[in-house]
Amino acid sequence: MKAVTIIRSGAPVAPNVELRDHEEPAPLLAHEVRVRTLASALNHLDLWVGKGVPGLSLEYPRVSGCDACGEVVEVGDEVDPSWVGRRVILNAAMDVPDVELPDAPPATSLAPNFELIGEHTTPGTHAEFFTAPVEQLAVIADDADPVQAAAFGLATLTAYSMLRTKADLQPGQAVLITGIGGGVALASLAIAKHLGCPTIVTSRHQWKLDKAVELGADHVVLDEGADWSRAVRGFTGKRGVDVAVDSIGKATHLWCVKSLARGGAYVTPGCTTGSDATTDLARVFWNQLRILGSTMGSIEEFREIAALFNAGKLGAVVDSVFAPADGAKAFERLESGGQFGKVVVDWRNTDLTSAL
Length: 356
Known about the structure:
Elements: E1 2-6, E2 17-21, E3 32-41, H1 44-51, E4 68-75, E5 87-90, E6 93-95, E7 114-116, E8 129-133, E9 137-139, H2 146-166, E10 175-177, H3 183-194, E11 199-203, H4 206-214, E12 219-222, H5 229-235, E13 241-245, H6 253-259, E14 260-268, H7 281-286, E15 290-293, H8 299-310, E16 318-322, H9 327-336, E17 342-346
Parallel strand pairs: 10-11, 10-13, 11-12, 13-14, 14-15, 16-17
Antiparallel strand pairs: 1-2, 3-4, 3-8, 3-17, 4-5, 5-9, 6-7
């Protein structure tokens, strides 16, 4: 089969990406299904895999990809055959159970340990076919747009787990979202608007702020490198926001903390500008703030967002769509940082002819 393949590690990643013949998928395990890919979407995870993930011994060439929409074409022995022919989306985050130790206390780990399809040992979704445990899939409508569906999964799951589960966002509460334009930030905006929450977004680019307003953002802040927390508090009558969603990290963490209302939550799924942020602990304890880390989400949360997608309540913003032969250009687009929304590879209507 054909696959968009990272042939070696290095930065920049795009020059190391080619459409290549890839080994055929391994025989299915009893609980697995084979999916013909209709569309796959890129995440920053693809760039991390391309550069090399600290702590993981990744071998190359390898196929990344943790977002996709496809059609089930084959099932394992323990999977109900009615899955065949269904259109599905993938939750690539697989919960790895902790080793049971005899003297471990209750709830030894208060958070799941995830491994990702497309990052660890399992090949990803940027191929004509991918394999996944059936419990990692959610069914969507037969007429759903595969490009939209592929762009929806991981970013929306991450945002939903952050806002609804970790931060316990309630309808009408004020939300700050930094770095609008990325998939998780845009998904956070959509979820906040779905809940009727006033939203404030930041960006270094005015054109991204203008697009965010078109999507329903209530207030915008042009980030020019100076503390903007006073402006954010001004939008809320000096009260502050209830939740700050920040994937930028070092460059914006302190300003987010200073933007929070009493009892507010700072929640982060990443730190693109660095992890060694300066904070304000006096403000944290006096205002009883919550500092929360979040990564991906549970199967239960994934099924909840799939239901919202099927009901037309949530969708995805797509920046650009590429053919598999232009996979390197898709990586280049993501690597440029100039995208607004998700970068997607469309596997339909190509000259690929592989079959199982």
